[in-house]
Design brief:
The chain is of the alpha+beta class. It folds into 3 domains: about 50 residues, RNA-binding S4 domain (Structural Genomics Hypothetical 15.5 Kd Protein In mrcA-pckA Intergenic Region, Chain A, Roll), CATH 3.10.290; about 90 residues, Pseudouridine synthase I, catalytic domain, N-terminal subdomain (Alpha-Beta Plaits), CATH 3.30.70; about 80 residues, 2-Layer Sandwich (Alpha-Beta Plaits). Helix content is about 25%, strand content about 25%. The strands form 3 sheets. Strands 5, 6, 7, 8, 11, 12, 13, 14 and 15 form a 9-stranded mixed beta sheet that branches. A 4-stranded antiparallel beta sheet has the order 2-1-3-4. Strand 9 and strand 10 form a beta hairpin. The two termini are about 25 Å apart.
């Protein structure tokens, strides 16, 4: 692999930045300064340092974010802050949200630059489950809970049902979906005459929101978490 590609895919520098850094003697491979970013390296064996710091090769980036209120699930927006702005600059330029949470929904978001993985995780054919904790304005009757389980019609004439519904109180519980229509949970509760007052995603496929992450905090996924995502996506 070319050195400039290695640095670019690792999120350290663009190819042009790598070329300039090499000319300035700011890159070493196995302890020796290299003056050209076009040299070939063994990405799994060679030790590359950029401006004195070792670089770990990352073909793809996988981030778990605890989304706070007020941020939109996008890479750019003229009217509101975006979730990628919460990341380090080098990752923010590289990743995109896998799926959407609306501006006022909190919790687990996956951000990555792996387009094929994202497409498969969001495909209705994969039935990847997402679990949400909710609070609602009025008590949920047994009849309304059954309607949510068996299905209701929402905007656009779509028929949607909860994959699972767990009631932990009259006005709170957990709802799991295997599809992701726009404002689906809010519309489903509206269809039974109720209103969401709080919504937080707590799982996405095999991922569970890391309890150590405060709102707005993030971390890279572990190798085991990445492997579980690929398994869920059939890759």
């Amino acid at each position: 692999m070319r050195l400039d590609r290695f640095l670019s895919e690792s999120g350290v520098a663009t190819r042009s930045e790598a070329s300039r850094a090499a000319r300035r003697g700011e890159i070493t491979v196995n302890g020796s300064i290299v003056r050209s970013a076009s040299v070939s390296i063994r990405e799994d064996e060679d030790r590359v340092c950029f401006r004195g710091e070792a670089v770990a090769y990352r073909k793809n980036v996988f981030v778990m974010l605890n989304k706070p209120e007020g941020y939109v699930s996008a890479t750019e927006d003229k009217n509101a802050p975006v979730v990628t702005a919460l990341l380090d600059e080098r990752d923010a330029k590289r990743v995109f949200p896998c799926g959407r949470l609306d501006k006022y929904t909190l919790g687990l978001m996956l951000l990555t630059d792996d387009g094929e993985l994202s497409h498969r995780l969001l495909s209705p054919a994969r039935h990847v489950a997402k679990k949400y904790y909710y609070r609602i304005a009025a008590p949920l009757s047994a009849d309304d809970a059954e309607r949510l389980r068996t299905g209701v019609y929402i905007e656009g004439g779509h028929f949607c049902a909860a994959h699972e519904l767990e009631l932990t109180g009259e006005r709170e519980g957990y709802i799991t979906l295997t599809e992701g229509r726009y404002h689906q949970i809010k519309q489903m509760l509206y269809a039974v005459g109720n209103e969401i007052t709080y919504l937080e995603r707590v799982t996405f496929g095999p991922l569970t929101l890391d309890a150590s992450l405060e709102r707005g905090e993030w971390r890279y996924l572990t190798d085991d978490e990445v492997a579980a995502l690929y398994s869920a996506a059939g890759l």
